[in-house]
Write a structure and sequence with these properties.
With about 260 residues, the protein is α/β, with parallel strands linked by helices. It has a domain of about 130 residues: Cytidine Deaminase, domain 2 (3-Layer(aba) Sandwich), CATH 3.40.140. Helices cover about 30% and strands about 35% of the residues.
Length: about 260
């Protein structure tokens, strides 16, 4: 990590015209560049936490690698904001298909949906878990109340990997994509199965998030926010259960509701 993630800065905080504070906590935002086989692939704007997980998760969820067996070495330098990754020879073609991009923290990030890789990377997800509506709400509550960065500085999204009744991994970042990639990277590096898990996110269920989950075989995606039309269409196509607007006792099941039992 380049610096501490949370910084305190002077500010003037008012409520109803009355000054109530003179400092504020801010979450760090900085670049993390992925150098793959010596070439710059992408620069991610992120908090700087868990750089190896973020790098591996990005490569896996964007279809460049299938497992850690495709990676011959990985090294991160937090002060420089760089992660060096070396791939085995058969993965180099996939890397060559991707263009160097600078990705924002979330809203402006371009999707790889129309890239040539998707024709060979997106397949039907497996049967996956079955869970109740109560379990969906409880998992979302656990993730939402576990975010330490959000409690201190707001300005962050969270993602979690879960099983019915249990949250396994939880990560936060300024970008919802980054939080998901850190989850995927941690699972890949630690040999955790993904085809029987639930992915939770505080960000909207857009096509990018759904595609990331589909590429790694996650069959259920749950969002605290709403879904986009393309996100729903992709989820329907790959057999994924997509649930959104999980808050206040409500939820919307957009696709494949058979995994949510009464």
């Amino acid at each position: 990590m380049i610096e501490e993630t949370i910084h305190t800065r002077e500010a003037f905080i008012f409520h109803n015209g009355k000054k109530i504070g003179d400092s504020v906590k801010l979450v760090r935002e900085g670049p993390l560049t992925l150098l793959v086989d010596g070439e710059e692939l992408v620069t991610l704007l992120c908090t700087g936490q868990f750089p190896e997980d973020l790098a591996i998760g990005f490569l896996r969820s964007e279809g460049i690698i299938d497992s850690m067996e495709d990676v011959t070495s990985i090294r991160a330098d937090g002060e420089q904001g760089i992660v060096w990754i070396e791939l085995r020879e058969s993965r180099k073609l996939r890397q060559a298909l991707l263009h160097k991009r600078t990705l924002g923290a979330g809203c402006g990030r371009a999707s790889l949906y129309f890239q040539p890789l998707d024709g060979i990377q997106i397949t039907q997800v497996g049967p996956g878990p079955r869970l109740t509506q109560e379990e969906v709400h409880e998992l979302m509550r656990k993730m939402s109340t576990s975010g330490t960065l959000y409690k201190d500085a707001r300005a962050t999204h969270a993602a979690a990997l879960a099983e019915p009744g249990e949250m396994i991994i939880m990560r936060e970042d300024i970008g919802r994509h980054n939080a998901v990639d850190m989850i995927v990277g941690n699972a890949i590096r630690n040999g955790i199965r993904l085809d029987d898990k639930v992915l939770l996110t505080t960000g909207r269920a857009s096509s990018e998030i759904v595609l990331k989950a589909a590429r790694v075989g996650i069959p259920v995606v749950v969002s605290r926010s709403a879904a986009t039309l393309l996100g729903v269409e992709v989820a329907e196509k790959v057999g994924m259960t997509l649930i959104g607007s999980v808050r206040g006792g409500k939820m919307t099941i957009y696709t494949h509701p058979h995994r949510v039992v009464p």
